[in-house]
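Appendix C reproduces, verbatim, an entry submitted by the partner laboratory led by Prof. M.T., so that reviewers can inspect both the input and the predicted structure.
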Amino acid sequence: MKKVAILGSTGSIGTQTLDIIRANSDKLSVYSLVANSNTKKLAEQCAEFAPKYSALISREGENCIVKAVQGADIAVVATRGIVALESILYCLDNGIDVALANKETLVCAGELVRSKAGASGLYPIDSEHCAVKQCLLGHDRTKIDKILLTASGGPFWNLSESQLQNVTAKEALQHPNWNMGAKITVDSATMMNKSLEVVEASFLFGLPVEKIQIAVHRQSIVHSMVQFVNGEVVAQLASPDMRLPIQIALLGDDGNFACSKLNFSDSLNLGFEACNFDKFPCARLGYEIMQYHPLARTVMNAANDVCVERFLDGKFSFTDFYSIIVNAVEHFHKHFERADFNLINIKKFDTETKLFVNKLLDGDIC
């Protein structure tokens, strides 16, 4: 029986992880549950699953996340931001596997995580990275020509640049294919999620970002592809259901849950388009940011976090994301050369960037 710690249990990934545990109760058990602030839902989950440990981050602080993973076999990391970074490093130091749904971990601390991953497994829950891992089974990684990360394009793909200036948070949250949390759904609309995923893929699969390409695939059926040097392309196809990559991360192919089957007896149209970096400039940040000091990725991520919060509150324009994020990176660029790349400075620049961007948007900084 594999003991599962769920960090971020009341969010979209956390609740779907519990679906997988229900479907595989002969193989998986809930060891601990940690939520940010949703007291009611956490209490309901504890009543059903009786974890050994449970906690609210808003009440007990970040230390409760490290406590939650101690004694677990695998930790599902579905928290926002870098709040769980210390616990992830603890897991990798102590032989606890990590199923990673949190993009910020590798974006901000990819070098730190990769230096420790080895004895412990690091399993991506992102549908795209899970698909890449499946595509590489039985293949020689030295023969990879490029990874093709598919993107749905979000709800605004077909809008003009002028129309994008007036879109609202309510419209951004209407994703055509996926059921996700608010933050990642907005990231999908701006295509910032693809920049984060490009950086993640670079660390997960040991490739430079130049070998990682974004391919827009509106149907969200092909979840990613790998092209090899001989011209062969291997793809993973499945219905858009996050429970599949969660189950693969926890159990490999030995799980009881099955997403809805694709019907190849009917017409199945699969289309691909080049990413429009002019209309969705946030999609190119994943390539641009790798030219900077590693701490610049923390600034990029933190600036985007503030922009998403402002946008969801109706206080920020959809078309201003890229310029504000670049402004923040350029502002802190001069500080990077004097700063070591470590956990302390990742946390420091995360905090300082959010303060800077909030002041910038409030008009306190010209």
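The chain has a mean pLDDT of 93. Additional entries are available on request from the coordinating office.
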